[in-house]
Design goal:
heterodimer; A: Rossmann fold; OB fold (Dihydrolipoamide Acetyltransferase, E2P); 2 domains; six-stranded mixed β-sheet; four-stranded antiparallel β-sheet; 25% helix; globular; B: MetI-like fold; 12 helices
């Protein structure tokens, strides 16, 4: 087990990348702490799988180095890296039994047969496939096959890291929850470094201690679920995390006041003059409807989503989502919306600007 | 729900039935006729029952030819199947060289059989052939016209040259259909090259290999033109395979009765072996899915 360091890493699938857009992975420096449980979150095509394949050695990066601990493994073959990876779609060895499938990575390392038998039994129990151990893997259902793939990923105890590439896509929801719990337990028991790629934020937030959000080939933020929620460093994070995502309103920033279409909004901090496109971001959870305080709002639609109600509205020509508590009556007198000032984030050209605490 | 029953579609099959009847069934029936009668020409036939069959079953000449035939098919299968797979594994997967290899590999398959025979007949000649002359120059005593071993070598190498491409191309098609994820997973699992072949490539190629082996068995078991052009079945009877023997018997000696009985048994043997082979392989496949 080792800390995984990515240095000046970038990757392009074209042989002669010239412009920024040629890179599937933009230049990055990143450290994955030994024993961390990370979720790698981002929309499809943002470079998550590319990053994973570079770590596991299936892909050689166009530039930069990959370090396991102090050892430079950029040019090391996958098999030398002793790393486990589970793919989005099940890969099983059709002609082998479930048992042999699970034992395969251990046999390839020449482990003791007694140890292999015990280990396979333990993993089979974990993925709930003890009853089918002697069956041929061919002809099993997709989710059974994916469980085998997961099992193969977890069977080695001494791996440097386990990489999961959206492994639960084909698994049904109940089993998904169960397996995720098992993965967490596995992490607690063995302390492997785990990187879990997903585009499902619930999955990411429940699995990981640290969530890494990628956007357009870049890591835009790494943090705890709370940090991602409260202080998204990039508008994409604000939009991607949370349901619904953060509200973004174009505004001019002047000290500790934002002006949305000439209407003043108080901010929780003071900002130096900003260049570029400036926006304020406010979570729907930190907005409330009022009878007069705040900005004028016109309500378009009210959705009851169980624990609370979600109001789709428009404020000064820009869309806005508001979360209203269950009991609140949404009457005709609620014509304005107010924001909690300390929860407002300010963005210039999509990136968050740190304000100075208001005195 | 009442389905409309309409069997008129069967009439559409009729033309094919007529063609097959005239091209295959009726000629086969005349062979049956010859096999059960003796004739001295003039369309006069004398019923002999199963006499020709009895004669052929006990004929040492046929036994020898059958033995040579089985040996030949076994040898070329043992060479062409592994060699074809090996070539397929080493062919480029994409790009210009992949297309280039495909064209190059297809070339021997496109050459008419008797031309293949002629090529090797000349190629192997000690006086003017590149192969024969080179071997002679190296001091190797090679002469396919009077040494049975040399004749066998020539015929086998020729068949390997002619037909390995077929196995290779089919195996290549099987390999190309394997998703990249399998190779990636194998790398992650630290599988050796052999394990990748044994557990990923071979199982995925199984279907096309079955077809390749079946085709190569049937073709080699019926081989006639190429060895006939190169060796004419000689020296002596060393390379007289079943078809060559059959033609000698039917057209050379004009023993139409025995030859007809011979060809019927020949046909049934090929049918039987192919059927057994196919059944065994498909059963294997079914067991695997259980």
């Amino acid at each position: 087990m080792a800390q995984i360091t990515l240095k000046n890493l970038a990757h392009s699938y074209s042989p002669n990348p010239s412009k920024d857009a040629d890179f599937a992975l933009k230049e990055m420096d990143h450290v994955w702490q030994d024993g961390g449980a990370y979720a790698l979150l981002g929309s499809s095509g943002c470079g998550k799988t590319t990053l994973l394949n570079i770590i596991s050695g299936l892909l050689r990066p166009s530039q930069g180095r990959v370090l396991f601990g102090d050892r430079d493994v950029t040019d090391a073959a996958t098999s030398e890296r002793n790393i486990a990876q589970v793919f989005q779609f099940p890969v099983v060895y059709d002609t082998m039994t479930v048992r042999d499938n699970l034992a395969f990575p251990l046999r390839n390392r020449g482990m003791d047969p007694k140890y292999i038998a015990d280990r396979v039994q333990a993993i089979a129990q974990m993925i709930g496939m003890e009853a089918t151990l002697n069956r041929k893997a061919q002809g099993l259902t997709a989710d059974a096959k994916q469980k085998i793939s997961l099992g193969r990923g977890m069977v080695r105890e001494d791996v440097n890291a386990i990489l999961f590439d959206e492994p639960l896509t084909v698994i049904d929801p109940h089993m998904k929850w169960e397996l995720r719990t098992q993965l967490k337990k596995l992490h607690r028991d063995f302390g492997h470094t785990m990187i879990y790629v997903t585009h499902d934020q619930t999955e990411a937030l429940t699995f990981a201690d640290k969530v890494v959000v990628m956007y357009d080939g870049r890591v835009v933020q790494m943090g705890t679920p709370e940090e991602l929620f409260e202080t998204p460093q990039h508008t994409f994070v604000g939009y991607f995390i949370g349901s619904p995502g953060m509200n973004l309103l174009f505004a001019q920033i002047d000290g500790n006041t934002a002006h949305v279409q000439g209407q003043a909004v108080a901010l929780g901090a003071s900002y130096a003059p900003l260049a570029g496109r400036t926006q304020i971001g406010i979570r729907p959870e930190y907005t409330r409807l009022t009878a007069g305080e705040g900005l004028p709002v016109s309500i378009k639609r009210v959705e009851d989503v169980g624990r609370h109600r979600l109001i789709r509205a428009e404020v000064l020509g820009q869309p806005l989502s508001i979360v209203a508590p269950e009991g609140q009556e949404i009457g005709a007198d609620l014509t304005h919306v107010a924001f909690a000032p300390e929860k407002i984030n300010v963005y210039a050209d999509e990136w968050r600007v740190q304000g100075e605490a208001a005195r | 729900m009442n389905k409309t029953q309409n069997n008129k579609a069967w009439f559409l099959v009729l033309p094919v039935l007529v063609v097959v009847a005239f091209s295959a069934v009726l000629p086969l029936m005349t062979v049956v006729n010859y096999a059960l009668n003796d004739t001295f020409g003039n369309n006069q036939f004398f019923w002999v029952g199963l006499e020709w069959f009895e004669e052929m079953v006990t004929s040492s000449r046929l036994h020898d030819a059958l033995g040579r035939q089985i040996l030949f098919s076994a040898i070329i299968l043992a060479i062409e199947v592994p060699l074809g797979i090996y070539i397929a594994l080493n062919m480029p997967k994409s790009g210009f060289w992949a297309s280039f290899c495909l064209v190059l590999m297809s070339l021997p398959l496109l050459i008419p059989f008797n031309v293949v025979g002629t090529i090797w007949q000349i190629f192997g000649r000690v006086d003017i052939g590149l192969l024969g002359h080179t071997l002679a120059a190296l001091g190797i005593d090679y002469n396919y016209t009077n040494d049975p071993f040399d004749a066998w070598m020539t015929v086998i190498v020729m068949d390997v040259w002619h037909w390995t491409s077929l196995v290779a191309l089919l195996a290549y098609a099987g390999l190309q259909s394997i998703p990249q994820a399998y190779y990636q997973a194998a790398k992650i699992d630290q599988a050796s090259r052999w394990a990748v072949f044994r557990y990923i490539e071979l199982p995925k190629m199984q279907g096309v290999l079955l077809i390749a082996i079946l085709l190569r068995f049937m073709d080699s078991f019926m081989i006639y033109t190429e060895p006939f052009v190169v060796t004419g079945g000689g020296p002596g009877n060393a390379t007289t395979f079943l078809s060559i023997d059959l033609v000698k018997m039917a057209i050379g000696q004009f023993d139409l009765g025995p030859a007809a009985a011979f060809s019927l048994m020949y046909f049934l043997v090929i049918l039987l072996v192919s059927w057994v082979f196919f059944t065994v392989m498909t059963n294997l496949d079914r067991q695997e899915q259980k």
